[in-house]
């Protein structure tokens, strides 16, 4: 819901005043909209426009390499013919004008009238109407213009900036239009400034498929799917409507419609990109973000722009608009062949493990699998107790870390000894789990691995006890905490101390140490956190155990059975 406004009727004009003040170094306000400060060399003026409420479209796309001017109507309302004329006349540089907008009745009428007015004054004026929304009509010429506005505007803006003639700018705009397809879905409707209810509603757990960008609902309602299922739906539907002779290179836009978070868009792109590549396409300069919105609508759209030898340079060309900037990386500053660093073990560099070490390595493999299974089982519980004074992600972090460790161990050569396995597991845990906990676990596993000799002919109880102490000391050194700070050390340090002090067999000593760790972990419910994210919410934490201490005690108990 749009919460900030003065008089709702003045919302569009007042926000535009603030926008122009912000970007007064490169834009000028004229009646009806904004224009870019003129380039030194005159060029074709590309004028975009429509109702406001779609930012960055339309005013945010004005600048070198993009639009020369934008006509800004009221919220979701076509600007008047007089305002279109005003902006175009102010932006004209003597090379002709192209008016471009989405295919809506009001826009067609008002931009069309303005074009006649401009031509009557001797200004050569062309019109390019965007028609990318595949859900709105099976016939191309009857379709609405939605997020595909961006590709068409960008192509013409780049062509004009390159000094192309009015004929060429118009032709390339129409070509881009014919090679652009979009499908959108909505999770929630948008609310006009001052209104108490949205323009349409989407039932809980559903989504509207084929929405418009002026508050129009979708053409049908479906059950809201997972991100992967939605990605498959969008790709499958858009590719089914590919233009003739599509070629193998595409521009891609995953567009947020107002309240869909960027992280959600990245998650969706994670599914979309591989599907497009599997379909045989090379993705060129993809865009993920809010480019053509609809106030506070929850939803996303996928746009595919089929490129050719003429369109690709326009799609990748530099641009400098208020809300969109593109600049190619300077040559020689990046290594395009870089494939990332691997945590996988290098078989040629492994120490030749003894038979005794290989027997221990097999126990490490079993233990890693058991720990990963345990963290999956306890993920919800660990997240629940973390949520009282943290962000509720401890269970997820432990799952990510233990899964990464297990994957590294499973991919290790059969001849890898326990030191090599634990060290590789630690590196993967640190890289994949994230957060402070992930770094601590990863580095401390490596510290423990450094105490083990893969070439040793036999192993004694003291070898395992020494590895546990190295693990604990690393946690203390890196984390800077101690017993009583309400961290995982409240379970780990009592365990390590008890293991070293207990006589008898290692099995008995381990069991006794686990009992001490579990008791200490439960007692953390009485403590106030002194470290980490929970510290600012110390009072909320009292009465609940520390999730790191609880997960540590769980793992130590399990390791006693596995090792």
UniProtKB/TrEMBL annotation:
A molecular-function term among this protein's GO annotations: glycerone kinase activity
Region (Disordered): 521-543
Keyword annotations from UniProtKB, A to Z: ATP-binding, Kinase, Nucleotide-binding, Transferase
Protein's GO biological process: glycerol catabolic process
PROSITE patterns in the cross-refs: DHAK, DHAL
Domain of life: Bacteria
Pfam (any one): Dak1
Gene Ontology CC: cytosol
InterPro entries, per the entry: DhaK_dom, DhaL_dom, DhaL_dom_sf, Dihydroxyacetone_Kinase
The DhaL domain, residue ranges: 362-561
The protein's name: DAK2 domain-containing protein
Organism expressing this protein natively: Rothia koreensis
